[in-house]
Design goal:
heterodimer, A: alpha/beta, Rossmann fold, 34% helix, B: alpha/beta, seven-stranded mixed β-sheet, 7 strands, 38% helix
């Protein structure tokens, strides 16, 4: 599995497309049988407590893209803090198991794990 | 040796900080700046304590005034967590006795540097979103941003953690 990280609008979907995943291959914030998933943060926000249970299904994917939501001022609302933390911790687990981790900054992919 | 670790929430800063700290000379101190003012803080503290358990850390709780902290023994390793809490505490715990948070927190790091062989400092990236905050919060973002820049300038190594992966921004690459 290749994990793709980056802030909002940093080029994650364009990078997925560059890997050959067309619109028909990429699920947006839902778990289905498509090869790639975009918007993991939306899945986590819907059920932060259950985030770790997503792990087996995510590891079956060829590519998973997740927005880095942990930067910026810590939110006042507990639900937002909980979703940010759950997303971060799930990404740590995914990154540890991924063959490759790519981080997007201003559309530029940097491989931070694997080759 | 001063090492600064930065990154957003839940990116693996604490865990990596502990990994680096246990490689440093003993004694091993954990300077905790989070004041336990509610249940969520207590849960965070409990989680961090569990992570550190059996790793040989002596915990020192210090919410403000790290510039005046005297360690029980010099020459070891300190993991200071974190500048974001320390800065907020300096700004908000005693609003009737304002201090310059930048000067105070940077002096705290310098004070610990003078008493340790290895100092590992954890901070947070609070500036990477929009600026739609109150003047008080914007003052905090500016103060922590300046503190981060000043500590990074003093540091031998700076890493940004992304999903548990350390990205070297300054100094030696792992």
């Amino acid at each position: 599995m290749i994990l793709i990280l980056g802030g909002a609008a940093s080029g994650k979907r364009t990078y997925l497309a560059s890997l050959g995943y067309g619109i028909e291959d990429v699920a947006d914030g839902v778990l289905d049988d498509k090869k790639a998933l975009y918007g993991l943060e939306k899945l986590v926000a819907a059920d932060p407590e259950g985030a770790e249970r997503l792990l087996p299904a995510l590891l079956e994917k060829e590519a998973v893209a997740c927005c880095e939501v942990g930067s910026g001022v810590i939110p006042i609302r507990y639900e937002q803090r909980r979703a940010r933390e759950a997303t971060g911790r799930l990404c740590i687990l995914l990154a540890a198991r991924a063959e490759k981790v790519v981080r997007l900054v201003a559309g530029i992919p940097t491989v931070i794990k694997g080759a | 040796m001063l090492i600064l670790l930065t990154g957003g929430s839940a990116c693996g800063k604490s865990s990596y900080g502990e990994t680096l700290a246990v490689q440093g000379p003993k004694p091993l101190y954990y300077v905790a700046a989070m004041e336990p003012y509610d249940e969520e803080c207590l849960q965070k503290i409990a989680r961090h304590r569990a992570l550190r358990a059996n790793k040989g850390f002596e915990t020192i709780e210090r919410y403000t005034g790290v510039d005046a902290l005297k360690l029980p023994q010099a020459g070891g390793t300190v993991l200071l967590e974190c500048l974001c809490n320390l800065t907020a505490n300096e700004m908000y715990i005693q609003p009737d006795a304002p201090v310059d948070p930048v000067q105070k927190v940077v002096a705290g790091v310098e004070n610990l540097m003078g008493q340790t062989d290895t100092l590992i400092v954890i901070t947070n990236d609070v500036g990477s979103d929009d600026e739609a905050y109150s003047e008080q919060t914007r003052a905090y973002i500016r103060a922590l941003g300046e503190i981060n820049a000043r500590v990074a300038a003093m540091a031998d190594r700076v890493y940004e953690l992304v999903a548990g992966i350390p990205i070297c921004l300054k100094g030696e690459t792992v």
